[in-house]
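fyi for ur records
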Amino acid sequence: MQVNKQQRGAWKQNSWSTPRYICSFAGLLIAISHNTASAESKTGFLPFASFSHTYDSNLLNRPNQGVGAAPQSDQINRFEFGTHINFQLSRQQFSGMVSFSDSRHAEFEERNVQGNAYRLRWDSEIGKTLVLAVEGSAISDQAPIQTGQVLAVERDQDNLTSSLTWNFHPEYAVLSQISRTETRFLGPENSNNITFADLNRDDELASIGLEFHPGTGSSIAILQKKSSGNFPIRQITGPMQSVSNDFDQNETELLTKWNYSEITTVKLSLSSVQREHREMPARDFSGSNYRLELLYKPTEKTSFTASWAKQIIGISDVTNSDALARQFFLSMNMQVASKTMFRLGYLPQKLQFDGTDGLSTQARTEKLKETSLNIEHKLTERATLGALLRNRSRDSSLSNADYSANSFSVFVKYEY
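which gave:
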């Protein structure tokens, strides 16, 4: 059974879904993504472990100028171990990952977190035309440090997704998916006061669509999506005044993948979005989103990725739930020697909070920028030594909110 091939439609929905959170570890994700993919192509239990030491010049992204605490550096040791899971039983495929981690800070000890994560997926071929997939995942780890006024320590996130693909014709398929995500934030020593609870949210998504995928590998699909965001805590907007940030969103999305040549692939997502907030119409959004991605691989050892996007993204922020982001991403992967890989990533984006900030009369915009440089060298067939250098910065329309930071990590990884 070739579940991976037949389920390309359902997985495509996941690969193009709108990101819920801005994560400051984009460079590290670039560094480890290829290892995860290679591990999941094997069969059985595949243990892995990693250790990293990181120096960060401005761990909490504090403003460079203005009243308040000045930027402060920190050193972090992080250890993680776990196993990938991949089994094929007749017409069933089971895959996933389980891991445990421990992060320790030299200065900001209140951010120490013992985390865990799992992702379990079941793919089943039903008859000759139906492919069912059910995936559950959970992660408890350090909360990302983002654009807001609250520095949560821990983020717990649970997700359950099910999808059904009906290949009623060799070149046509009906795609459907339902998912629910629950996100909770905690402060130091697992505190759960009203400030951190402001960040909590529940997201739901349902979609159905039609995909055309000829034998060339190119494809085109049209999807109808309905999503909602529910926030357990109402936002305080004044003395004895609060408001719910709950919203409902309808979206019609066109997805295309075009194999222009053997070395060039173009992907496009174009959607019409209508978002309505139940109690705060000033945060409504009506317009078009897009994402264009170009994949170019001139040689077996070198590849480039470039993407341009305008989309609504989720924000873990005390005064906001979402922002309209205009993004550009450029990356290069190059094998400079038989055992050495070099990677470069560049991600600038502009966030527009106009109509989404309930506590400030000033229209808020921010320009975020991140550059990452990563090099890895295989010590043995299973052990890898690497280094990651990142620079990140923010230019905000708010007074005294600009910051810049540099971080440097060295890490070693083992994969069975």
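Residues 26-40 form the longest helix (15 residues). thats all i got for now
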